[in-house]
Write a structure and sequence with these properties.
The two termini are about 20 Å apart. The radius of gyration is 20 Å and the shape is globular. The protein is about 60% helix and about 0% strand. Pfam families: MPAB_Lcp_cat.
C-alpha cells in the first residue's frame, strides 16, 4: 500500500487542495459531474473520451475469468512463480489464451523512451528516500481514504494478511524504482503484468463476496485515482518541499509511471501526457473518490502499527504524526489517525531542515538530532519492506477474504 500521505496537497493547491474544499462537505460520493478530461492530453493524443468509471479491462478480464472457470489458477500461479525477468521466455504449459495475452501485453508501448527511462532510474535512486516515504507511507494513507480501494483491499484475500499484502505491493513499488526497471534484466514488466492479472481476478472474485456491494471493482477510473496518489502526489509534495529537480528529471519520473500505467492495463487515452494533464486529471478524479470508511480506518491502524513495529527506533505517536504530516488534515481525519501535538509540531519544524540538509543547502551542524532519527527510521522502514518484498511474489488470488 502506498497511499497514506497525500495530504499536504492543500498547500500546493493541487488535487488535495480541491479535496480540501470539496471533501469537507462531500466525502466520497461517486463522481456526479461528467467526465471531461480530454484525451488530447493523453499519451495517445486522441480517444473516444468514454467515462473510465465504466471501463474495466476488456482484454484481461475474460482471460482470467476463463482461468477460474477451468480451475487453472493454481496451475498458472505455479508455472508463473519463476517467471521473473523482463526478457525471460514464458514457461511451457500455460493455457494458450493466457500465454497469448501475456505475450501481447508484455511489450513496452511504442512511445516508451529508453533515454527517459534511464533518467527516471537515476532520479529514483537519487530521490529514493522521498519517493519511498511518499509512495509507501503517504500513498498508503491515501489509499485507505479511497472507499472503493479500502473496501476492495479489505474484503479481498490480502485483506486478511496485511503484512503479506504490503510486502507484495511493495514488490511493484520497488520494481518501478529499480535501476533496471524496464531493461531486459529487470522485473517491472513481469510484475506489472502479474498485477494486471491480479486485478482481473479481483474483478471476478469480489462481486462473489457476501460483503461486497456495488459495481465491479477496479475500473479504469479507480486505477487512475490510485495512480495519482503515487506519482502525481509525490511530485506535488517534492515541489512543495522545494526539492530541486530538473525538468528532465520531472518528465522522466512521469514517464516511468506512464509506462507502468500502460502495462497495468490503463488505456493510453487515459494516461496523462504531461504534468499539466496529470494534475488536471488528478483534480477531477481524486476529490469525489475519497472519504471515510470503517474498513479504511481499520486498515490505516494496521498499517501504522506495522510501521511503528518495523521501525523499532520510533514510537507509534511519532508514526502517527509522520502520517498526518504527509496527508491533508481532512484525509487524516477520515483515516482517524490519532493526534500528537508534540510530534506533529516537531516534524513540521524539522522536515524542511532535513530536506535542505539532504539537498546540501545547509551545513550539517545545523541539523538537529531528530532529523537524523527520522531519516534513519525511514531507511530502516524501507529496508525492511524491501527485504520482505523479496520473500514473496505476486500471485493470482484464488478467493476472497475468508472471514
Ligand atoms: C493487488 C498495485 C490499483 C485493489 C495489487 C498488487 C499490486 C497492486 C502490486 C499485487 C499485490 C497483491 O497481490 O497483494 C496497484 C497499483 C495500482 C493499483 C500500482 C494503481 C496504479 C488498485 C485499485 C484497487 C486495487 C484502484 C481497488 C479499487 C487491489 C486488490 C488487490 C490488488 C484488491 C489484491 C489483493 C489480494 O487479494 O491479495 N495491486 N494497484 N488496486 N490491488 Fe492493486
Amino acid at each position: 500500500m502506498a497511499e497514506l500521505s497525500r495530504r499536504k496537497m492543500l498547500l500546493s493547491g493541487g488535487a488535495l487542495g480541491a479535496l480540501g474544499v470539496l471533501g469537507m462537505a462531500v466525502p466520497a460520493q461517486a463522481r456526479t459531474v461528467p467526465w471531461t478530461w480530454a484525451p488530447s492530453g493523453s499519451v495517445a493524443g486522441a480517444g473516444a473520451g468514454a467515462d473510465p468509471r465504466w471501463v474495466w479491462d476488456e482484454e484481461a478480464d475474460p482471460v482470467v475469468a476463463a482461468l477460474f472457470e477451468r480451475g487453472e489458477v493454481p496451475l498458472v500461479n505455479q508455472l508463473l512463480w519463476d517467471w521473473v525477468r523482463n526478457d525471460q521466455p514464458l514457461p511451457g504449459g500455460l493455457p494458450a489464451d493466457l500465454h497469448d495475452f501475456i505475450e501481447r501485453n508484455r511489450q513496452l508501448p511504442s512511445w516508451a523512451n529508453p533515454g527517459k527511462l534511464a533518467t527516471a532510474a537515476d532520479f529514483n535512486k537519487r530521490r529514493g528516500l522521498y519517493l519511498n516515504l511518499l509512495n509507501g507511507v503517504g500513498g498508503g494513507m491515501l489509499s485507505t481514504a479511497i472507499p472503493k480501494e479500502a473496501r476492495s483491499v479489505y474484503y479481498s484475500a490480502g485483506g486478511a494478511n496485511m503484512e503479506d499484502r504490503v510486502a507484495k505491493t511493495s514488490i511493484l513499488g520497488f520494481a518501478v524504482g529499480a535501476l533496471d526497471a524496464y531493461r531486459p534484466e529487470g522485473n517491472c514488466i513481469v510484475n506489472s503484468v502479474k498485477t494486471r492479472l491480479v486485478h482481473a481476478a479481483v474483478r471476478h472474485l469480489l462481486p462473489q463476496s457476501p460483503h461486497w456491494s456495488g459495481d465491479i471493482p477496479i475500473s479504469q477510473e479507480d486505477i487512475l485515482v490510485t495512480w495519482h496518489t503515487l506519482p502525481t502526489y509525490a511530485m506535488r509534495k517534492m515541489l512543495e518541499w522545494q526539492v530541486p529537480m530538473s525538468t528532465a528529471d520531472r518528465d522522466a519520473y512521469l514517464h516511468v509511471w506512464q509506462v507502468t500505467a500502460h502495462l497495468l492495463g490503463v488505456r493510453d487515452e487515459y494516461i496523462p501526457a504531461d504534468w499539466a494533464a496529470a494534475n488536471a486529471q488528478s483534480d477531477q478524479v481524486l476529490p469525489p473518490n475519497m472519504g471515510p470508511t470503517p474498513e479504511g480506518v481499520e486498515l490505516t491502524d494496521i498499517l501504522l502499527g506495522q510501521l511503528a513495529e518495523q521501525t523499532g527506533t520510533i514510537t507509534r505517536p511519532l508514526v502517527n504524526a509522520l502520517a498526518r504530516f504527509l496527508v491533508d488534515p481532512q484525509v487524516a481525519a477520515w483515516d482517524q489517525i490519532p493526534r500528537d501535538p508534540f510530534w506533529e509540531g516537531t516534524i513540521a519544524t524539522v522536515w524542511p531542515i532535513l530536506v535542505r540538509f539532504r539537498e546540501a543547502l545547509i551545513p550539517a551542524p545545523l541539523v538537529p538530532e531528530i532529523a537524523w532519527t527520522i531519516d534513519e527510521a525511514l531507511r530502516q522502514y524501507i529496508l525492511l519492506f524491501l527485504t520482505k518484498g523479496q520473500e514473496t511474489k505476486i500471485v493470482i488470488p484464488t478467493g476472497n477474504r475468508p472471514n
